[in-house]
Amino acid sequence: MGEGERAEAVRKRRTAILFAASMVVGVAMVVGTAIFKQGHGRIAPGWAIAFVGLYLLAVFGSWRFACRVSDEVELRANVGALATGGTAYALVYPSWYFLWRGGLVPEPSHEALFVIAFVATMSAYLWKRFR
Known about the structure:
By secondary structure, the chain is an all-alpha fold. It is built from 4 helices and no strands. Helix 1 packs antiparallel against helix 2.
C-alpha cells in the first residue's frame, strides 16, 4: 500500500469515526429529551444544560470535520451548503416577522425556522456533493 492509499484509509477511518460519534450524540440528545421531558413541552433544567453541551460538542465536531478532515471538494460543498442555509433563513425570517407584525400570519416559529434552514443546508450539501 502506497503513501497516498494509507492517507486515504486514515481519512476514511476518521470520517467513519466522526460520523459514528455524531450519530451517538444525536441519539443521546433525542433519548435524553424524551426521558427528561416534563409537562407542557418543558424539560428538566439539568438536561437543558447537558443538551446544550452535547449540541456544542456536535457543532464543534462538524466544524473540525469541515476544516481538518475534508478535502477541497468536500469543503466547497460545505461552504456552499452553509451559504444556502443562511440565505434561506435570511429570506424566510424577516418576511415572516413583518407579515406577523402586520397581523397576516401567526408568530414565527423558531422550530420551523430551524428546520427550514437545516433542510435548505442539507439539500444544498447533498446536491453539491453527489450531483
